[in-house]
């Protein structure tokens, strides 16, 4: 197991390392832990290596290094520092060493090695203190650096390669000494007693060398990302986790840009056929990326699109090249002479263009100038920089060309300097100007998915997207309430399924959060969201009034709360029959009119009454077209150009307009929305005589998709306060539904059957669209988990479907769940609003029952 810099820099991280190692031991495995230096330490050592005669700076850097290690030592609560101080003493000796002022390569390598020697020493002490018997090993006793042909001096000391291969005697020797070992990444023995370091990504490479040497069961690279992705997630947030790659694909992705794994570490494990996995230290439950011998998907497909910036192109032009024996040999001889390794090559009758990758080369302008001077002797040279290489990686690239037309069209619009198709049929590379890359990669990624050459529905290869993984942690400020009630919920599902379960505590908590907004004078619960009697009582107890849209809703609330005053009910119907208005008025309920018809045709009913007028501010908002309730396409409210006529009729019939109302949609997560409605209603109300109340509606959203940011109630409070300060004459009312109950409700269902058709897997449950219609009606996204297997790795991509005879009976498309079995309890979250109340008996199936906790 290899742990990188950030994974070894705090005590908590070391606790995680101890836990992971202990769990392997509990499964009868022996573990070798390979560590990097504490984060930032190798950089400090590098800078120290460059100080030469600047003793003051050297001293300062030395002190920082010592303090950094002592601080972790103290944080770990370790008793004595002497183990670490021995390395600090070695640091002091090196600073006194005569090789310091010359910055000799052997000296630099020894200095750099100190970072890993210190971190592994600290780690060994801590793991032993944590009761994990751990033996410290000096990696240099096992890994021997060997010079590659034509390798520069610099490379031999500071970017060394190691001879590798299975050494059964070493494995047996270690097996006889214990079960847990810790050693350093990045360092190796050179010659008899010198130290060399392995260069960038050296710790990964060390782990791979050790994996091959010991013929390990697996090499695990523990890092702080979940694995390799189908693109750089910083450029493409929708990039998908690659759950399985073969060695060749992983090598290509690593070589062509992904920084997660150093390309050098594939070769040793591939030769030894040792699988290598990338895992996230923060989220060990995620599957990560597994790299092994066979690919899981037999068909050609693009697995990733990667990019490398900082490339330099050297274009060499000569007429005499045509059929000239030895021209290429002469040209490449010059590159060899200057220690430059060539990456991509494009050739024409009169031109050869090659690329130089800065990560393989010590590229500076001097080297380039010297190279060009040499090359000028046999050709005309042009240097093109800065360039970037964009690479599509996947097996069988040549057989996919006909499906890449949309991708190629994107390149057609650009200046492409070089195209290279690798002879192993694994990559297709385009070299373009560096500046276009960041905007281009997300477009190309989307086009690859659209053309189905990147087959993201294949769950054997592709996992969850980066944005979903990243947001799961950040936006879920607190774990949902149901996570703490698993046992109880499983029991409830056992009793009856499908079943809605509501947490009244959660309803109260949401009500209290809203009541903390001082600008709102009266809160109403829009009971269309969920009219369960216990919920009505709970919000009533929190001081909420009620907003109803039908006579039956009025009856339901009066039934649940018999002593409720009629004026605590606001009736806001739409296209309701005349009798409902009459009944409401008769009961003393406040009535809102949202059309001219009632006032023009039934005006006498409203004589002498106080009424509210619902206006249409001309635009709708919300999470889906079907919930936007503003604009000409929506049937709600009186259009602004009809308000004058409405007032005229109201005046004629002696109805008093005492309030203005607007509700523009549902599921809105942007606090600024209500600010704008508030301002618009207030300025409109100023034109009336008697208006004292503004009702700015409901629509307060709750995050559903992992990437949704929750509604910022502090921002909402301050926006409303600001408007209210400008219009203190108006009372402010609001009428949310969803916000109070959505998260409080879950729908529990049982797995009925599972099915596979081609690559598509279905998990059937006993709750269908007749219990929860939101996904079918609004394309709503509800989190879905297998409650019976909560915490198990969710690595199967499935369609969660119900038993209703409709193709649209899908509760969740493309969800990742652990392998589900008949009888497992599935939980559909955020189902408390517009769930049970919209249920039907379609197919004569009874919808889910309801239960309050
Ligand atoms: N007020 C009115 C007039 C509505 O039509 C609705 C929803 O349809 C609401 C309030 C409640 O909306 P939400 O549940 O999104 O808060």
Description:
It is a single chain. This protein has 853 residues and is an alpha/beta fold. The protein has 27 helices and 37 strands. The protein has four domains: 2-224, Acetylglutamate kinase-like (Carbamate kinase), CATH 3.40.1160.10; 304-451, VC0802-like (2-Layer Sandwich); 504-739, Alanine racemase (TIM Barrel, Alpha-Beta Barrel), CATH 3.20.20.10; 745-852, Lyase, Ornithine Decarboxylase, Chain A, domain 1 (Beta Barrel), CATH 2.40.37. The protein has an eight-stranded mixed sheet with strand order 3-6-2-1-9-12-13-11. Strands 21, 31, 32, 33, 34, 35, 36 and 37 form an eight-stranded mixed sheet that branches. The protein starts with a strand and ends with a strand. The model has no long low-confidence stretch (mean pLDDT 90). Bound molecules: pyridoxal-5'-phosphate. Pyridoxal-5'-phosphate binds next to helix 26.
| CATH structural fold name of the largest domain | TIM Barrel
Report the sheet-strand fraction: 15-25%
Terminal residue distance: 45 Å
Number of helices: 27
Roughly what percent helix? 25-40%
Main pleated-sheet profile = 8 strands, mixed
Tell me the CATH architecture of the largest domain. Alpha-Beta Barrel
The pLDDT mean sits at 90
- Beta strands, count: 37
* Low confidence ranges: none
- What is the C-level CATH assignment of the largest domain? Alpha Beta
Number of separate structural domains: 4
What small-molecule ligands were found?
pyridoxal-5'-phosphate
This entry's quaternary arrangement is single chain
Which sequence of strands runs across the widest sheet? 3-6-2-1-9-12-13-11
């Amino acid at each position: 197991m290899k742990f990188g810099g950030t994974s070894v820099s705090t005590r908590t991280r070391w606790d995680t390392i101890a836990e992971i190692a202990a769990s392997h031991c509990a499964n009868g495995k022996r573990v070798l832990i390979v560590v990097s230096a504490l984060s930032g330490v190798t950089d400090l050592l590098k800078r120290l290596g460059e100080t030469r005669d600047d003793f003051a700076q050297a001293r300062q850097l030395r002190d920082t290094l010592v303090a950094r290690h002592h601080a972790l030592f103290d944080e770990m609560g370790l008793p004595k520092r002497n183990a670490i101080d021995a390395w600090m003493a070695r640091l002091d000796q090196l600073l006194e060493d005569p090789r310091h002022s010359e910055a000799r390569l052997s000296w630099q390598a020894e200095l750099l090695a100190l970072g890993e020697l210190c971190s592994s020493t600290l780690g060994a002490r801590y793991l032993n203190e944590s009761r994990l018997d751990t033996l410290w090993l000096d990696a240099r006793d096992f890994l021997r650096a060997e010079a590659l042909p034509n390798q520069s001096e610099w490379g031999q000391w500071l970017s060394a390669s190691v001879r590798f291969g299975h050494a059964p005697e070493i494995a047996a020797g270690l097996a006889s000494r214990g079960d847990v070992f810790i050693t350093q990444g990045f360092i190796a023995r050179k010659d008899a007693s010198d130290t060399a370091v392995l260069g960038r990504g050296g710790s990964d490479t060390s782990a791979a060398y050790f994996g091959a040497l010991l013929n390990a069961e697996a090499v695990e690279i523990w890092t702080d990302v979940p694995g390799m992705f189908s693109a750089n997630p910083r450029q493409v947030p929708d990039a998908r986790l690659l759950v399985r790659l073969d060695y060749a694909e992983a090598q290509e992705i690593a070589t062509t840009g992904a920084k997660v794994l150093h390309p050098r570490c594939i070769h040793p494990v591939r030769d030894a056929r040792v699988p290598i996995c990338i895992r996230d230290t923060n989220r060990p439950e995620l599957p990560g990326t597994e790299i092994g011998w066979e690919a899981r998907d037999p068909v050609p497909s693009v697995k990733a699109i990667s990019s490398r910036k900082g490339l330099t192109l050297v274009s060499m032009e000569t007429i005499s090249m045509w059929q000239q024996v030895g021209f290429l040999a002469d040209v490449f001889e010059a590159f060899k002479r200057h220690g430059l390794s060539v990456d991509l090559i494009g050739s024409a009758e009169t031109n050869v263009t090659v690329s130089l990758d800065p990560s393989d080369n010590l590229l500076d302008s001097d080297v380039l100038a010297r190279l060009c001077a040499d090359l000028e002797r046999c050709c005309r040279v042009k240097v093109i920089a800065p360039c970037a290489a964009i690479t599509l990686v996947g097996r069988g690239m040549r057989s996919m060309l006909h499906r890449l037309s949309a991708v190629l069209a994107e390149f057609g619009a650009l200046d492409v300097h070089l195209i290279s198709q690798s002879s192993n049929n694994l990559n297709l590379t385009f070299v373009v100007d560096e500046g276009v890359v960041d905007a281009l990669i997300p477009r190309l990624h989307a086009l690859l998915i659209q053309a189905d050459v990147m087959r993201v529905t294949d769950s054997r290869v592709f996992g969850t997207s980066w944005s979903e993984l990243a947001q799961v942690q950040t936006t879920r400020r607190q774990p949902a309430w149901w996570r703490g009630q698993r046992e109880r919920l499983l029991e409830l599902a056992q009793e009856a399924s499908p079943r809605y379960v509501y947490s009244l505590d959660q309803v109260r908590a949401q009500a209290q959060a809203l009541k903390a907004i001082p600008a709102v004078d009266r809160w109403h619960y829009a009971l269309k969201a969920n009219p369960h009697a216990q919920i009505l009582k709970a919000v009533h107890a929190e001081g909420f009034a009620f907003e109803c849209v039908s006579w039956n809703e009025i009856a339901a609330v009066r039934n649940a709360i018999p002593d409720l005053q009629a004026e605590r009910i606001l009736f806001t119907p739409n296209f309701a029959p005349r009798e409902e208005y009459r009944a409401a008025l008769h009961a003393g309920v406040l009535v809102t009119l949202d059309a001219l018809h009632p006032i023009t045709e039934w005006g006498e009913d409203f004589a002498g009454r106080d009424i509210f007028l619902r206006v249409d501010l001309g635009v709708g908002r919300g999470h889906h077209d079907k919930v936007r309730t503003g604009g000409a396409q929506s049937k709600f409210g009186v259009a602004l150009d009809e308000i004058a006529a409405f007032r005229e009729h109201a005046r004629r019939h002696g109805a008093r307009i005492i309030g203005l109302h607007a509700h523009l949609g549902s599921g809105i997560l942007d606090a600024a929305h209500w600010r704008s409605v508030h301002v618009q209603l207030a300025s409109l109300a100023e034109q009336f005589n008697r208006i004292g109340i503004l009702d700015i509606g409901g629509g307060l959203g709750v995050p559903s998709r992992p990437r949704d940011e929750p509604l910022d109630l502090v921002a909402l409070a301050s926006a409303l306060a600001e408007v209210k300060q400008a219009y203190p004459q108006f009372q402010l009312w609001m009428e949310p539904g969803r916000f109070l109950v959505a998260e409080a409700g879950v729908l529990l269902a049982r797995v009925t059957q599972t099915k596979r058709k081609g690559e598509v897997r279905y998990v059937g449950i006993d709750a269908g669209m007749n219990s929860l219609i939101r996904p079918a009606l609004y394309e709503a996204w509800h989190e879905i988990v297998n409650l019976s297997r909560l915490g198990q790795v969710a690595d199967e991509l499935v369609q969660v479907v119900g038993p209703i005879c409709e193709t649209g009976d899908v509760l969740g498309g493309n969800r990742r769940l652990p392998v589900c079995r008949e009888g497992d309890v599935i939980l559909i979250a955020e189902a408390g609003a517009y769930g049970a109340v919209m249920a039907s008996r379609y197919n004569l199936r009874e919808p889910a029952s309801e239960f309050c906790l």
